[in-house]
Specification:
There is one protein chain. The protein is built from eleven helices and eight strands. The chain is of the alpha/beta class. It folds into two domains: about 160 residues, NAD(P)-binding Rossmann-like Domain (Rossmann fold), CATH 3.40.50; about 90 residues, ProC C-terminal domain-like fold (Orthogonal Bundle). Strands 3-2-1-4-5-6-7-8 form an eight-stranded mixed beta sheet, sandwiched between helices. Bound molecules: 1,4-dihydronicotinamide adenine dinucleotide and (2S)-3,4-dihydro-2H-pyrrole-2-carboxylic acid (A1CAB).
Length: about 280
Amino acid sequence: MNTSTHPIITFIGGGNMASAIIGGLVRQGHPTSALQVVEPWDEQRARLAQQFPGMTMLPAASAELKSSDLVVWAVKPQTFKDAALAAGPFLGDALHLSVAAGITSESMAGWLQTQRIVRAMPNTPALVGLGMTGLMARAAVSDADRALVERVVRTTGELVWVNVESDLDAVTALSGSGPAYVFYFLEAMRDAGARMGLAPEVAQQLAIGTFIGAATLAQRSSEPLQTLRERVTSKGGTTYAAITSMDASGVKAKFADALFAAQKRAAELGAEFGK
Ligand SMILES: NC(=O)C1=CN([C@@H]2O[C@H](COP(=O)(O)OP(=O)(O)OC[C@H]3O[C@@H](n4cnc5c(N)ncnc54)[C@H](O)[C@@H]3O)[C@@H](O)[C@H]2O)C=CC1
Ligand SMILES: O=C(O)[C@@H]1CCC=N1
């Protein structure tokens, strides 16, 4: 471990997720001089260099990576193996944190020849410090390594640990992909509001405010979700009409099907690209 108070953190892949985590770290005072990114795409390297001046930007893995205390894997599952085999020889004795969906720590251990591996499943609200991340550590990961990962991840929002690695596929289906479901509902609410005659931007403002308000109420309340829902639902009233319509169309069951499809896809990605 580097002796300064700030560990050297290397990102392999500098896309959406890496940017969100780098943003969190920089907001919390991690110096850009202690951050490096391997990103082959010139435009993306230029964008990151402009957004976070002072970071070491590398087009490919090279000897500079030797100083890494923590390596964050933020490439697509499809490119993980190639990236791991290319960077592995330069990585010394670093701790590894992967955010890739599906790719198991067992695959990573084989490619990187180390057991110091933590897997994370973050989500894009990390961009605004309101991320939700699920974490899982291999047995060989020390308490000090877990603490370092927690310090990094907390700069982007909240976290939960799971003990069984396959649970990360469920975390992926729920909170990893989850922001997309929320945007999907927001689009549906905005479009329905517009069809009822509201200006689309007014409908969107109402929809977003409602999500934030309801989620905050649920977070702060000690009451069950069902009670909160029932409190909105006057017998024979408007909400009752809406919920009855959703129940008749099987919306809850269809929504569950969607999450199971995401969970299944996470496992498939691991099987397909983890070999
Ligand atoms: N976007 C999301 O909401 C979430 C994504 N993830 C996971 O994060 C990972 C990255 O996703 P995004 O950031 O959305 O993708 P992205 O496509 O924005 O970023 C991936 C970056 O990796 C770069 N890259 C490609 N080959 C490389 C190599 N050999 N070495 C280094 N960099 C390379 C690409 O140029 C690209 O900029 C994925 O594995 C995904 O499963 C996890 C949680 C949420
Ligand atoms: O869609 C995906 O595969 C990634 C993982 C979770 C969110 N985005």
